[in-house]
Amino acid sequence: MRPLRIAFSDFIFSRNDRDRMASFDPQDNVFTRLLAKEYDVRVVPMAEAEVLVYSTFGEAHQAFRGRKVFYTSENVLPDFDACDHAITFSLLPDDPRHYRLPQYVFYVDDARRLVKGAGFDAAASLRAKTKFCNFVVSNPRCPQRNQFFRMLNRRKRVDSGGRHFNNLGRPIADKLAFVRDYKFTLAFENSVSDGYTTEKLVEPMLAGSLPIYWGNPQVALDFNPRSFIDVSAFPDFDAAIDHILKVDADDELYLSYLREPWFNGDTPPSWFDASGHLAAWSRFLSTPWVERPRVYRDRGLRDHALGTGLGRHLSSIGTKLDGLLWKSGWRF
Asked: 320 vs 109, which has greater pLDDT?
């Protein structure tokens, strides 16, 4: 096997058992395990590497002179002035420098768990649901999500089990076990971008709860749009909430959603097949590397989706104040 000297930088190098994407082990990770199928992988210091894989949490990668692969699970677009190749959520099907690997893939240990199959009993699943709707969020910085939760909660109580807008007394310990009892789950992304779908959609699917989704405008490329309620398909939040309450009151209408397969054609998208990911790496590494000037831009997370400057900062402050008002008892 060909030796491959690889280094990693600007990830969160720590252990987080609650969120598998909030920590990264440079010696044992999705890239080292995948590449070991075709290469003799050696994780080395950056100064000794022929390939550097870097992410969004720092600037150490700027000192590297060699082939650079940008990876992110965050809503950040690849910048090919700073890297040679990229692995992100972005929809760039015709760019050989890029491989699409949506973040939600890492939250599904076996894609067959999301294949309903001919024997799926939607009626039995509905009978097991004893509660209306849940909301599990810790990040307050999404004004649309905050607004929708408050609006729906005013019409019919939504149980909030995260650190944000909690109304259960304390955060829940096991999200999937908690979600399993609910007919609906509010599944709003932190921000909107084409191709950006995260665990927020697949976790309720895994628990058999109907997602109320807001986020990726192109979500139907990966998931069957008839299997969940897409808030963006309605003219406004009030219309979406009217529909949710109608579905809640009509078992047959609810079952019409639940009987639909989560995936288009009940077939997992290609991102779950590691062979496509490995083929992308083969393409990257077989491309002759030519040294060229790098351009590094000062980019924050979700800049392309939320903008920069005063407006973004005011929005962030507003969402944090919203959370503080909730904790102080202002729940209208």
From this structure: 109
